[in-house]
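Q: Convert this sequence to structure tokens.
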Amino acid sequence: MSLENNAILNIYSIGIVLIIYFHAFKLFEKDSMSDKLYMSMLYSTIFMLIVDILSRFDGNTSIIYIVLNRIGNFLIFLMNPVLPSLWLAYVHFQIFHDERKTKKLFYPLCFINVINIITLIFSQFFGWFYYIDSDNIYHRGPLFWIPAFITIMLMLVAFTIIIINRRNLGKKSFFSLVFFAIPPFVCIILQIKFYGLSLVLNGVVLSLLVLFINIQNHSMYTDYLTGVNNRKKLDAFLKEKINMSTAEKSFSAILIDINNFKYINDTYGHDTGDNALETAAKLLKGCLKTSDFIARYGGDEFCIVLDISSKSDLEVLVYRIKNCLEKHNKSGSYPYQLEFSMGYAVYDYQSHKTAADFLKHIDTLMYEDKQAYKNKLRVNI
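A:
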């Protein structure tokens, strides 16, 4: 690929990344590890696209071309494992949502990058990875495939983690994470087969774009703390379910409130209160099918929407939630006990209730359940 063609393609790709960056800068949370890793991938991609242009300054023996060519090729090989390392860390956090565990992953990834740097420095003397002849022309060395091998292996590890843990991901997140590896992987194969072709970074830009579209969509409709859907998504989803309902096929909803949540917050602190909300969300998700819908209704309340048209089937699920809650409390993993009050009902198609009316109905049922819980406590005292 000529310098001119490479420059045009890379400048176009840089423009796309900059557009993503400016949108992401407004959208992302500064303290979110996921967002930090994504932004780091953007920075690295822009830098490598610029460096890739510099590595095309060959075939001309002027001092400027020689210097730029040598700097460009050195930095390209230096940065090779950086992007896949950031990607692996990003995938790990997206799946496990554990900042501490993801930070531990940085150690082996840093080790890989340090080994790459040391090997690259030595290769300058022996031409293992590449060498530039007296005419300022780049040539592959006998071990040119090692950086590509490291990149592919890191991407394959990330891909394997995604596939193994696919049940922990939503459909859109799963698609975006799986798709990310495909364009760069195809471009790597093409680059190895066709000498002089440089498309890998352009493939990464396409992957970053698809990933950003999913992140933006996800963040608009996701509760940041618990990771479940937010109230905005719930309102839209309920309206859709009501419009699709018929006399033969309806749906159900459960409104859930955490009892004594204020006591947990006041006694153990707001961090523990946040932990209680996250735990409640995980517990509820564990009782549901992947196709079931769960949202944070507000504060310490959650709403579940289900494709259940029978009250008896709905009661079976409510019993399952209570059973899961009982098992959780018996585990003694936390200093507090989680207790739920629940209001639930099958949507009556003949009633023609709006989404707001239906939510008000199950909210009333939940309040009655909460009052019964409080009365029970008074009797026990």
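The domain at 3-220 is CATH 1.20.1070 (Rhopdopsin 7-helix transmembrane proteins).
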